[in-house]
Amino acid sequence: MNANNVRPAEPQHPAADAHSGDHSQRLNWLRAGVLGANDGVVSTAALVVGVAAATPEFTPLLIAGVSALLAGAMSMAVGEYVSVSTQRDTEKALIAKERWELEQMPEQELEELTQLYQAKGLQRETAEQVARELHEHDALAAHLETELHMGGEDELTNPWVAAGASALAFTLGAILPLLAVLFVPGAAKIPVTFAVVLVALGITGWLSAKLGQAPVRPAVLRVIGGGALALLITFAIGSLLGTSVA
């Protein structure tokens, strides 16, 4: 085959590139889930290790661990619900304002959209044509995307889903140290719990770095170092309190 007749391969673009906004939103949800799991690991492990340093008895450890899991999961759920509800209310208010402006001053809104496209680099004539065609198709969606960088009304985040996801992520993270401290026997209880927690933190640090496209090693070391410090502090406090009570 003549090399001159070989056509260069066309660049391949992943389908996800056409939906970069959706992709970014999914990554944000995944990062939030990883951070929620990380919180569950650290906070629950710190509490149960502190209690285990004071007493190795099963019942106090069970009560402390389950209480930490439930309280943390509820706190995460309520916090996420309030946060997302506030964001949703703000977005709904912006949508209502934009709809009113389109009804009351359509020409001004058309000119505003035209100028926005000019600011993106389009010539005036092209910007006017694009803005007018988008106005005829779906003016509200065009302004939400270009002016406010928002999706449509059907893409608003559900606060109940956000609350449930946060509570679930925290619970999954909290279960690991809780099971380790409850069912590992004897003197190995605390060392094994430490090891389980550090491995879990390493995994969450790796995931957060990959999702954020950041260097892996600093993220993993940072997460493991912070978790280890929290465990050591609570272990020392529990040991001191256990000794003083005895």
What does this structure look like?
The protein is mainly α and 246 residues long. It has one domain. It has 7 helices and no strands. The longest helix is centred in the N-terminal third of the chain and has 47 residues. The radius of gyration is 26 Å and the shape is elongated.
The share of residues in helices is over 70%
State the low-pLDDT regions, or none.
1-21
Largest sheet: none
Basic shape: elongated
Structural class: mainly alpha
Q: What is the strand and helix layout of this fold?
A:
Blueprint: H1 20-54, H2 58-104, H3 106-119, H4 124-146, H5 159-183, H6 189-211, H7 216-245
Helix pairs in contact: 1-2, 1-5, 1-6, 1-7, 2-3, 2-4, 2-5, 3-4, 5-6, 6-7
In brief:
With 246 residues, the protein is mainly alpha-helical. It has helices at 20-54, 58-104, 106-119, 124-146, 159-183, 189-211, 216-245.
